[in-house]
Amino acid sequence: MIYFSIAVTSLVASFLTFFSGFGLGTILLPVFAIYYPLPIAVTLTAIVHLLNNLFKIALVFKNINWPVAIKFGLPSMISAFIGAFFLNKLSLKNNTLYTYQLFDNQFHITLLNLIVGCLIILFSIAEVSKKISAISFDQKYLIPGGILSGFFGGLSGHQGAIRSAFLLRLNFDKKVYIATGVFVACLVDVTRLFLYNSKMNVLNGDSNYQLLLLAVLSAFVGAFIGNKLFVKTSIAFFKWFVAAFMFSMGILILSGIVN
Length: 259
Known about the structure:
Blueprint: H1 2-20, H2 24-35, H3 38-60, H4 66-92, E1 96-102, E2 105-110, H5 111-128, H6 130-133, H7 142-156, H8 160-167, H9 174-199, H10 206-229, H11 236-254
Antiparallel strand pairs: 1-2
Helix pairs in contact: 1-2, 1-10, 2-3, 2-11, 3-9, 3-10, 4-7, 4-9, 5-11, 7-8, 7-9, 8-9
């Protein structure tokens, strides 16, 4: 069941990223979190996210807006390191805030549960909120936007929604928007993976390697299909589906049911 869940989620989430500019990490993290502790789930998601974005860069490289990519991406890299540092600190300590019983099972709510769960819930609401989606930012806010996006990318992997809130308001052609966002996401992924892997033993078994390879290949398929169809397809339905899924998983993580 785990292989099927990860494969389908990776494919669908990767496909959706060509429409929204984000979504793979946001959707895949909660599914990995069903089977792994949150710090490991974040790291596995980051690996899939990076490899998939490298594949997408090969598809859309010529459309990157380099001045914006550098101005937004470099602050993102620095703050991603800080966010990943905090994730490591949280994962190495016992940060249990509350323990409760439910149907003869004991669940623990940790500080990391609280942070990641709340982030997923907030981004699920932002995904379908007309007021939030209408917020615009001037180019002078690209640096603070990069700092904010990168920090949450390092901490929980949720960089895409914040990045999109800034880049969407630059009135790029959609191909330029997608390509520039993918490049920035790669910078953040490289930074956070460097710190994650120095602290966490993620690939500690053949099953983990197999699962990771399956997730990456499924994401490649989703990206390839998305690149072919994103110009012609409406995503209104998908946005609501993603939001509902994110909100549900956010509640489960926040409550400690999913760790």
